[in-house]
Amino acid sequence: MITVQKEVEVAVRLKNELADCEKVFDILAACGIEVLASNSYFTGKWMLALLITDNAYRAQRALDAAGFDCRSDSVISVDAPVRSTAAQVGLVLRGAGIRIVYSYLSMASGSEEVNRSRVILKTSDDDRAVAVLRANFLGPTMENAGQEPGWGMPATQAASR
User: Fold this and answer.
1) DSSP notation for 56-98
2) What is the rounded distance in angstroms from the CA atom of residue 29 to the CA atom of residue 19?
3) Could you report the per-residue pLDDT of 19-51, keeping only the tens digit for each?
4) In sequence order, which residues have a C-beta less than 8 Å from that of residue 8 and are 6 or more positions away?
5) Which residues of the chain form beta strands (DSSP E)?
6) Range(s) for CATH 3.30.2130.10 in the chain?
7) Residues of the chain with CATH 3.30.70.260
8) DSSP 3-state of 159
């Protein structure tokens, strides 16, 4: 099953030191907050850690209390049972004229979730992107009732295959 939904991403600005990144994960674990996906990159003397958690509000509160510089923003999460999800999502959004600002991928590691991937995306229009992705990947809606959704093409094109 594929899920497409908006999530809250917590962005944490850190000194360019591995120990700070470890502290972030230690704090979240101590609070019982699960990190579902993460990405980090360096911006010179700073590192930015992007986190999707099972409770963004609690995560940001805990990190703020520990003195970390945090912000939150909406992103899109696409959870699917196949590894080619990211490429397919990119094709669909490109075809709809929606720009991907950034993205990252998390692969599930639990025994029940082998080969599941979670694609996190920030787009130029998250609300429209969610609607487009749901129309293409989640089956019949009022707009495409009776048509089979396709990977990487509008549902109407998939139905004509």
Assistant:
1) HHHHHHHHHHTT-EEEEEEEEEEEESSTTHHHHHHHHHHHTTP
2) 15
3) 788 899 999 999 999 999 999 888 888 889 999
4) 56, 57, 72, 73, 74, 75
5) 3-15, 35-42, 46-53, 69-80, 100-107, 117-123
6) 8-73
7) 75-141
8) helix
Q: Note the pLDDT tens digit of each residue in 94-149.
A: 999 999 999 998 876 654 556 678 899 999 999 999 999 999 887 655 444 443 34
CATH code of the region 8-73: 3.30.2130.10
CA distances (Å), origin 16, targets 42, 47, 48, 49, 76? 7, 5, 9, 11, 27
The listed CATH number (3.30.70.260, 3.90.320.10, 3.50.50.60, 2.10.110.10) that belongs to domain 75-141: 3.30.70.260
Tokens of 61: 């509160």
